[in-house]
Amino acid sequence: MMQRRPVILSIEEIAAVSVRLAASAALTRMGIKADSTEKTESGELIKASTASRRIEIELESITASATRMRATAKNGAPLYDSPTATEIILQTEKLI
Question: Which CATH number belongs to the domain containing residue 39 in this structure?
């Protein structure tokens, strides 16, 4: 017998989930492998990678309808790849 139970989410949780799903879809669309997702004190952290870059996406719920997204792409130890980080944010925005 299958049991069903309603899932109740707050507006903040729905907003955060939609941004997380859009960010994951953007990474997939760009051919970037998502390695892990973890909860943080302020929200969520998605770690991803390519052969030459390490990527981190921080998601923080600001209000019921606003989620802050910060993408960082590193190309080697001290070097940042701003165009890739910007493109991840732009692709995520298109998918929301």
Answer: 3.30.160
Tokens 């669309």 -> residue: 29
Distance separating alpha carbons of residues 81 and 96, to the nearest angstrom: 24
Contact 57, 46 (CB under 8 A): yes
Q: What is the pLDDT of residues 30-62, one digit of tens each?
A: 999 999 999 998 889 999 999 889 999 999 888
CB burial of residue 40 (10 Å; 0-12, 13-18, 19+): exposed
Q: How far apart are CA 49 and CA 71, in angstroms?
A: 12
CB atoms within 10 A of CB 20: 19
DSSP classification of residue 80: B
Tell me which residue range forms the domain holding 53.
Answer: 11-95
The DSSP H or E segment spanning 61 is strand 54-63
